[in-house]
Amino acid sequence: MLFLLWFKVKQPESITQKQLMDIWKREAEAALPAVKAGKIKGLYKVSGRREVVAIIDVNSHEELDEILETLPIIRELGHSVTVEVAAIHPYENFYELIKKLAQ
Fold it and tell me: What pTM value is reported for the model?
């Protein structure tokens, strides 16, 4: 199951820029091995914003919840991070569906 995740990070007033970057560094150190392992299909930083977009491949909704709840950035900044989640599927699958529906 593929999901598009859009992370929006707001720096709490209680932490410094350095502290935020330290948390983000731990997040990157956790995420990059998942990219290499193929669990994360795409991972992108949105230029000029404190936002990251990811495409992940999970086996269940429960696995998605588990992954999200164990991310360093969520554990350490929880209320300061908004995550938008959307189920996605390959466009080729959609094309096959519309061919069928068009008949």
Answer: 0.88
At 73, which helix (H) or strand (E)?
helix 72-77
pLDDT at 98: 94
With H, G, I as helix, E, B as strand and everything else as coil, classify residue 60.
coil
Signed CA dihedral, 77, 6, 39, 68: sign only: positive
The answer, yes or no, to whether residue 43 has pLDDT greater than 90, is yes
Q: Which domain holds residue 6?
A: 2-102
* Domain harbouring 6, CATH code: 3.30.70.1060
pLDDT of residue 78: 87
Provide the number of structural domains found in the chain: 1
Is the alpha carbon torsion for 45, 46, 47, 50 positive or negative? negative
